């Protein structure tokens, strides 16, 4: 039922004919529906998955202009997950790259009359593709914030490889949006400030988030707000705990 | 306005006659989004740097949005915020010579365009003719159709090869700039001649000093002796060779005369030789390089300030010295005669004899006790040059410029060809066309709509001036650039 509802909403909001993509198994063994809006405005879909966490998905733009999807799952009040999905490898760009390598190889072959060039080109394309999928192309970056535990960042490569980093909550000083000069652009990015163990007000390191997808400011602000809510809750809890401890010490 | 004096070939720059700041703030409804561009900015120290900083602060106070663009200084790169939300972009461009970046007229376009678009800049204000980044920014701003203002801080010759080349470049750069600001009438004359400009688009707005930084303190002086203070870089242009002639002559005549020299430079060796030869170690003290905040402490130890510059557009040092209550003796060169009224300064020709006469006159006045007290001099000088006044006058220039139209491409090409000589004109017209094509390409690669609008720190929608700093949103502004 939820399925039909979402699809209906999508059809109403859709102006282009990019089409509804095939449903694909999600990480939580539910059906996830993706579609892309022809216009630039984000399409909002929201449905509840019964006993599972509530989930929202919105379409934003990356700094490069590519469309990205931000998915939010609220597991509980102090535990949220954000994942940014980049567009998958396009058949068009793949074939363009392959064609250019092969044409160049063919040109060399005509000049040098050495057939080794052609087989080398095939191997170069294959190895290049494997390296690209395994080490470069990131399909999804997710951020799991658990108020009492810490922040976990996962990036999954197109080949299925995943790399995960975890930062303990006591190390996290804050989550902020920062500006940086990147290539020939000036971009906003979200980052985690790590507490300097020696100095109480110092920052020892800045860990950038969503490094490969590089969402634009409107998307970052959404994630930032949610992160701040959780961090705020945690601050209140810790201060309450401290007060309780003090009270206990005073009583004893 | 009592100090304004016209005639005898001498114009005193109109002083700030107690501007009512509240009124002027209320009446200035028009606000601009200004981008200051120069190669020279803090942490580099100097006149241009402090001019840009102080002017920006006063413009922010008047409600304008101001950002500064400069090149990266060592580890200081990326985006930083200074007092009152003044945003500074330190761009990673290669430094070529004397803190000035290399210029190709093209390589900085992508970044500068991105900044102009994301900050919604309306007026580009470049500083200093030595800064190639300032010229680049003017060139790109005109290609993008933004209003441009240029401030010239220095005087130039016409004779040697380097000046001829720089003057040609300046002609090209300024021929289609909307408005030019000079720091003194002499500097205006010089710039108009060098760049073959229409004098009507050149305004004179002097520099200013912060009078609260330069207050007199007579208790620090030793009244048994007469101390002459010299604070300048020890280079040829500042007339250090003249100083080395003056020192032995006057020290022989007046046994109670002491010299205090602050500053560093290649000519220091000349002064050291003089000190050695005439055995003046106890009377001539060389302090070496001074930081700006220590200058006042040196100034207040003296009675007379001596400036021996051979060329100067607007001498800040003599205003600072007069603000500390010293009697100023200076050479009559460049814009110096315009800076202070006659009763506060003794002007001499740039020769050893004339300067010695001037110093003797000053010593005689001190001996006779006819000089006004440091307090009265300070109170007089502090009304002359204030940054608020400079900002008010600059804002008027912005208002005027904002109403003007930017030359469209065809007229700009015409102007370049007709104004800058045939060869140079056609070469730069070609550059202008190429840079326009490059801009079209960049607009296709990353359209303006795909560029995030930056969060304003200053100006009418400034997040910094709305006082919700301690709140949650404050974190968004707590930005530590590392890239």
Automatic annotation (TrEMBL), chain A:
One of its GO terms (cellular component) is glycosylphosphatidylinositol-N-acetylglucosaminyltransferase (GPI-GnT) complex. Belongs to the PIGH family. Residues 142-211 form the Phosphatidylinositol N-acetylglucosaminyltransferase subunit H conserved domain. Pathway: Glycolipid biosynthesis; glycosylphosphatidylinositol-anchor biosynthesis. Pfam families: PIG-H. One of its GO terms (biological process) is GPI anchor biosynthetic process. It comes from Pelusios castaneus (West African mud turtle). The chain crosses the membrane at residues 93-111, 117-136. InterPro entries: PIG-H, PIGH-H_dom. Residues 1-22 are annotated as: Disordered. Keywords: Membrane, Transmembrane, Transmembrane helix. This is Phosphatidylinositol glycan anchor biosynthesis class H.
UniProtKB/TrEMBL annotation, chain B:
Residues 217-363 form the Glycosyl transferase family domain. The keyword Cell division does not apply. It is a single-pass membrane protein. Pathway: Glycolipid biosynthesis; glycosylphosphatidylinositol-anchor biosynthesis. It catalyses: a 1,2-diacyl-sn-glycero-3-phospho-(1D-myo-inositol) + UDP-N-acetyl-alpha-D-glucosamine = a 6-(N-acetyl-alpha-D-glucosaminyl)-1-(1,2-diacyl-sn-glycero-3-phospho)-1D-myo-inositol + UDP + H(+). Coiled coil: none annotated. Pfam families: Glycos_transf_1, PIGA. Its EC number is 2.4.1.198. Belongs to the glycosyltransferase group 1 family. Glycosyltransferase 4 subfamily. Catalytic subunit of the glycosylphosphatidylinositol-N-acetylglucosaminyltransferase (GPI-GnT) complex that catalyzes the transfer of N-acetylglucosamine from UDP-N-acetylglucosamine to phosphatidylinositol and participates in the first step of GPI biosynthesis. This is Phosphatidylinositol N-acetylglucosaminyltransferase subunit A. It comes from Pelusios castaneus. The lineage of its organism: Eukaryota, Metazoa, Chordata, Craniata, Vertebrata.
């Amino acid at each position: 039922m939820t399925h039909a509802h979402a699809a209906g909403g999508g059809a109403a909001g859709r102006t282009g004919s990019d089409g509804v993509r095939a449903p694909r198994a999600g990480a939580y063994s539910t059906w996830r529906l993706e579609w892309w809006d022809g216009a630039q405005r984000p399409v909002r879909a929201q449905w509840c998955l019964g006993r599972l966490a509530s989930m929202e998905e919105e379409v934003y733009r990356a700094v490069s202009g590519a469309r990205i999807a931000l998915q939010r799952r609220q597991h509980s009040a102090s535990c949220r997950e954000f994942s940014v999905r980049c567009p998958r490898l396009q058949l068009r760009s793949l074939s363009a790259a392959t064609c250019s390598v092969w044409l160049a190889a063919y040109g060399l072959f005509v000049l040098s009359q050495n057939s080794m060039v052609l087989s080398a080109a095939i191997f170069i394309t294959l190895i290049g593709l494997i390296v690209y999928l395994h080490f470069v192309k990131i399909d999804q970056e997710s951020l799991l914030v658990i108020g009492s535990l810490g922040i976990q960042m996962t990036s999954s490569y197109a080949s299925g490889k995943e790399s995960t980093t975890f930062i303990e909550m006591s190390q996290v000083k804050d989550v902020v949006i920062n500006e940086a000069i990147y290539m020939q652009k000036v971009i906003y990015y979200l980052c985690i400030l790590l507490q300097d163990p020696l100095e109480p007000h110092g920052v020892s390191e800045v860990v950038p988030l969503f490094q490969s997808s590089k969402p634009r400011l409107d998307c970052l602000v959404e994630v930032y707000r949610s992160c701040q809510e959780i961090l705020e809750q945690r601050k209140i809890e810790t201060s309450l705990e401290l007060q309780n401890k003090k009270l206990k010490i005073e009583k004893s | 306005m009592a100090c304004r004096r016209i005639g005898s070939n001498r114009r005193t720059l109109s002083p700030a006659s107690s501007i009512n700041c509240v009124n002027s703030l209320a009446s200035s409804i028009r606000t601009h989004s200004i981008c200051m561009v120069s190669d020279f900015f803090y942490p580099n120290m100097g006149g241009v740097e402090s001019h840009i900083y102080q002017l920006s602060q006063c413009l922010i106070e008047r409600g304008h949005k101001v950002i500064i663009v400069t090149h990266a200084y060592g580890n200081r790169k990326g985006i930083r915020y200074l007092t009152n939300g003044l945003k500074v972009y330190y761009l990673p461009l290669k430094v070529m010579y004397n803190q000035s970046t290399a210029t190709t007229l093209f390589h900085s376009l992508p970044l500068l365009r991105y900044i102009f678009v994301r900050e919604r800049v309306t007026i580009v204000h470049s500083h200093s003719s030595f800064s190639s980044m300032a010229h680049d920014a003017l060139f790109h701003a005109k290609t993008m159709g933004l209003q441009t203002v240029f401030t010239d801080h220095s005087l130039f010759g016409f004779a040697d090869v380097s000046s001829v080349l720089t003057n040609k470049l300046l002609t090209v750069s300024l021929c289609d700039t909307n408005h030019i600001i000079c720091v003194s009438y002499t500097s205006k004359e010089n710039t108009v001649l060098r760049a073959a400009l229409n004098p009507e688009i050149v305004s004179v707005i002097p520099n200013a000093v912060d009078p609260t930084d330069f207050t007199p303190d007579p208790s620090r002086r030793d009244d048994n002796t007469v101390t002459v203070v010299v604070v300048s870089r020890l280079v040829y242009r500042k007339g250090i060779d003249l100083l080395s002639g003056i020192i032995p002559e006057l020290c022989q005549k007046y046994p109670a005369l002491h010299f205090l020299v602050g500053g560093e430079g290649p000519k220091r060796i000349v002064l050291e030789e003089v000190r050695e030869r005439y055995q003046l170690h106890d009377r001539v003290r060389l302090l070496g390089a001074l930081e700006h905040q220590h200058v006042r402490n040196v100034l207040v130890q003296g009675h007379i300030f001596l400036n021996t510059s051979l060329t100067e557009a607007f001498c800040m040092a003599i205003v600072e010295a007069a603000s500390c209550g010293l009697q100023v003796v200076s050479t009559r060169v460049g814009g110096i005669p315009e800076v202070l009224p006659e009763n506060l300064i003794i002007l001499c020709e740039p020769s050893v004899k004339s300067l010695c006469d001037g110093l003797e006159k000053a010593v005689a006045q001190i001996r006779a006790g006819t000089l006004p007290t440091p307090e009265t001099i300070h109170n007089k000088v502090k009304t002359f040059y204030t940054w608020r006044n400079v900002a008010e006058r600059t804002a008027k220039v912005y208002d005027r410029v904002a109403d003007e139209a930017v030359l469209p491409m065809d007229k700009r090409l015409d102007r370049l060809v007709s104004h800058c000589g045939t060869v140079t004109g056609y070469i730069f017209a070609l550059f202008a066309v190429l840079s326009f094509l490059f801009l079209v390409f960049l607009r296709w690669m990353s359209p303006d709509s795909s560029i995030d609008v930056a969060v304003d720190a200053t100006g009418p929608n400034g997040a910094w001036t709305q006082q919700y700093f301690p709140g949650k949103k404050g974190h968004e502004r707590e930005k530590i650039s590392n890239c």
